[in-house]
Here is the input.
Amino acid sequence: MIDDVTNKYMEKTYRSYEIYKEISKYIPGGVGSQVRWFSPYPFYIERGDGAWIWDVDGNAYIDYVMAWGPLLFGHARPKSVLEALKKQIDNGLVYGIPNTIKLEVAKLIRSMVPCAESIKFCNTGTEAVMYAVRIARAYTRRRKILKFEGVFHGYSSEVWVSVTPQIDRVGPYETPNPVPGSEGIVEDYARSIVVSHWNDVDHFKRKIRENREDLAAVLIAPVNTGSGVLPPAEGFLEEIREETEKYGVPLIFDEVITGFRLSKGGAQEYYRVIPDIAVYGKILGGGLPIGAVCGKEEYMRVTDPKNPRCAVAGTFTTNPLTMAAAHAVLKEIEANSDLYSKLNSMTEKFVGKLKDAFTSRNINVFIGHVGSIFQIYFTDKEIRNYRDTAQISKDMYRAFFMSLLIRGVFTSHSPYGRWYTSTSHTWREYDETIDKVEDALNDLKYLR
Ligand SMILES: Cc1ncc(COP(=O)(O)O)c(C=O)c1O
Here is the structure.
């Protein structure tokens, strides 16, 4: 069956195939970010509008990847971001001298994000995590970082550890190995990571107690979006906050996905747990590259260039185009007080209907969901952490992804990815998606 759908995909995407062959001569794998590649080859996009994208062969897709997170309002939305960019273009693209737009952006962030007493900008979420870790190390003068197995924090060598490790390398449950995510990551980086388990408070308590003298920070994404979508169990984040306070270890929230998505104050507002430092990216840039480290003043002070203990810099940092887009997107969020309640409740109903489509065909799935992100796991068990994902059916997932793709619904090709909805998705798109999911599942039931 997977061969049939793959063949159909190849019939529909011939122009993409030609381009793929040509680009691969110059760019390994034919893609920029490696996560965009899937077998047999990715399709190439021509344009996007709201919840829809069109590829170079003219196929239309309802998009649930949404650029992997930044597009809260959909493609080429909101119009205010496009207007702000057009206006800024005529005044210059990058200056290398401080501009004033960042003041307005910083004020808006502070008004929305509880821990954001002080803010430093950069260009990506990866950089923002790298700086947050550096700030915590400079502040505490300690070395180690505690992170959770299966949780992703961007691609810097320091934290690209134990994200999706091969299950035969993870080590015993009680003493998980820090497993580098790539060749080329020096062992010292992996050795600086203490690994704990998602949603296992007791394990976390043992690890923080054992390592308290050496820990510069506890780094956590408040929703585990590295293993699909695994929300925190009740009390998990609260206990982490309590323990980090007890031992004087700074708590960093990686809100690159949850920031401005779960609520205007991100996961820290949604779950009412305030970290010492939080990092942002994606939505904040309104579609342009951005990263931001926000934190309590006492931590952020180490980046003050008058007395620099911790360098944060870069040619494109706070460039006026990104700042103009960020300003417009934050104004849009500020002006739409029911944005999140509407988006989250519509997504919840949509997820409920998806669940029904599986249940009525006796196909076992576990759906991890919060707000406007979710992921479907093909399993009859509950998924609590990364190790549980070892028993999901990756063949079913791949067949499902491909079956939807040939019907014009684009979701994450990776079982560790997620579906994103946006304010551009309406019941027109959701109903059409449900029809296509039902159709795809009728094919899929022969796989079991
Ligand atoms: C939780 C999390 N942190 C950090 C990053 C890295 O952000 P960027 O891709 O902007 O470097 C990502 C990217 O998906 C992410 O999901």
